[in-house]
Design brief:
Helix content: 40-55%
Distance between the termini: 32 Å
CATH class of the largest domain: Alpha Beta
Strand order of the largest sheet: 2-1-3-4-5
Radius of gyration: 17 Å
CATH architecture of the largest domain: 3-Layer(aba) Sandwich
CATH topology of the largest domain: Rossmann fold
Number of domains: 2
């Protein structure tokens, strides 16, 4: 059996380690690449063309809502993304699938369930819980996702920092670029998002927000 290479993106180190053990039991030989925030996820997904799939938490530093999923599907369409979350809201699950997830796995899933899901995805199919309520995708949200997907990696970082409420000078400092470069990125972002100011851009990003998890007692995180 060939070794599978899996990117595990979650901001909780203990959960990443636990999931790695579950993956070894489910898939046999597996090479785990970890990412604890959006910057690390961008780096490893761009640097590692041999990855077979991504296991993505919905709540990580440096990203808003479904934005990380939208980014991966836009920049790495060949890489299947399985959302793994403590959120069991059927609307959240359906929205994740609408945004291109190959599967939605609850963090309480057994090794047997994880094996079933991942083997389905690795075979090139989509896996979705059979009892999920099917809902029509919100067209406006999908259009926003398409626009955000057109952003370059650096523009995406700037937009996420903008959504966190950072000022231009703070963004410039954190990214190691000039304020003039930040403003140039902002101009390009506004054009691609078809907005005219920061407030409108943030409102668009908020359309991809994930509702608070209903199962607050889930292990490790509410992601």
């Amino acid at each position: 059996m060939s070794t599978r290479r899996v990117i595990v993106a979650d901001d909780h180190p203990l959960f990443r380690e636990a999931l790695g053990l579950a993956l070894e039991k489910a898939l046999g030989q597996v090479d785990i690449v970890q990412a604890g925030n959006m910057d690390e996820l961008q780096q490893v997904s761009s640097a590692d063309s041999s990855a077979d799939l991504v296991l993505l938490d919905l709540h990580m530093p440096g990203v808003q809502g479904f934005s990380a999923l939208v980014y991966l599907r836009s920049h790495h369409p060949e890489l299947p993304v399985c959302v793994i979350s403590a959120n069991n809201n059927t609307k959240v699950i359906q929205r994740a699938m609408d945004h291109g997830a190959a599967a939605f796995i609850h963090k309480s899933a057994s090794v047997e369930q994880i094996r079933e899901v991942l083997n389905t995805v690795l075979a090139g199919d989509i896996w979705q819980p059979a009892d999920d309520e099917q809902a029509d995708p919100r067209q406006g949200e999908l259009e926003v996702a398409e626009r955000i997907g057109e952003l370059t990696p650096q523009q995406f970082r700037v937009l996420m920092m903008l959504a966190e409420g950072l000022l231009n000078k703070q963004i410039a400092f954190d990214l190691g670029i000039s304020e003039a470069t930040v403003k140039a990125h902002m101009t390009a972002i506004f054009r691609k998002l078809e907005v005219s100011n920061r407030t409108q851009a943030v409102l668009l990003v908020n359309q991809l927000a994930v509702e608070a998890p209903e199962n607050s007692a889930a292990a490790f995180s509410a992601g």
